[in-house]
Amino acid sequence: MQSDTLLHVANFSTLFVCMVLKFPQIFVLMRAKSSTGVSLNSLLLELIGFIVFVTYQMYYDYPPPTYLEYPILIAQDVILLLLILHYSGSLRQSLIYALVFVGGWRLLTVEKWIIDLAMSLCTFISAASKFAQLQCLWKSKDAGQVSALSWGMATYTCMVMVRFIVMTLLNLWVLLTVLYYQKHSSSTKKED
């Protein structure tokens, strides 16, 4: 009972944080009128990952509460993209990005295998996004206009997933132990 309540609190707090996750970054960029330190490639990869995930969920008719935060995150990323393009003097490219994203989104659902493949690559796309931001920071040696609060909130939303990773590892450990002892037990019986 208590663990269910804790899980619900974690889920709702994660949803709430996702609703405002990019706001600190948006405000930092608007205040500074510069996108120094914010990786455009990181943002584009993150946006691709979010689009793939929400498209997969919708394609397979998952209930909206399981992916509700992703359209909100996509909208926030689009605002960030427009701000980065604006402050870098490349706002005209936004039309090209819009066409590529809409075309890519439509392409995802042409065939079932395409969306399945894209979803299987989603974790790698998201990880590449984080590495692109790190590379930008390492190259410039300057956090520029990168919002620590946004990244802190992103860290919090992922911490909820740590429970599933830990449980997966523990389940795997139990499985391997069972297999080990089953093998050991069968070889002991053969010797008798």
Describe this structure in words.
- It is a single chain.
- This protein has 192 residues and is an all-alpha fold.
- Helices cover 81% and strands 0% of the residues.
- The protein has one domain (1-146).
- The relative contact order is 0.14.
What's this model, at a glance?
The protein is 81% helix and 0% strand.
Output the radius of gyration.
21 Å
Biggest sheet overview? none
Extract low-pLDDT stretches: none
Shape verdict? elongated
Q: Kindly state the mean pLDDT as a whole number?
A: 89
Sheet/helix structural class:
mainly alpha
Helix content: over 70%
Count up the domains.
1
Number of β-strand runs? 0
Tell me the fraction of residues in β-strands, as a range.
Answer: under 5%
**Total helical elements:** 7
One letter per element, helices H and strands E, the order comes to HHHHHHH
Topology record:
Blueprint: H1 2-20, H2 23-32, H3 40-59, H4 69-87, H5 94-108, H6 112-140, H7 148-191
Helix pairs in contact: 1-4, 1-7, 2-4, 3-4, 3-6
Labels describing this entry:
transmembrane; membrane; transmembrane helix; Solute carrier family 66 member 3; 192 residues
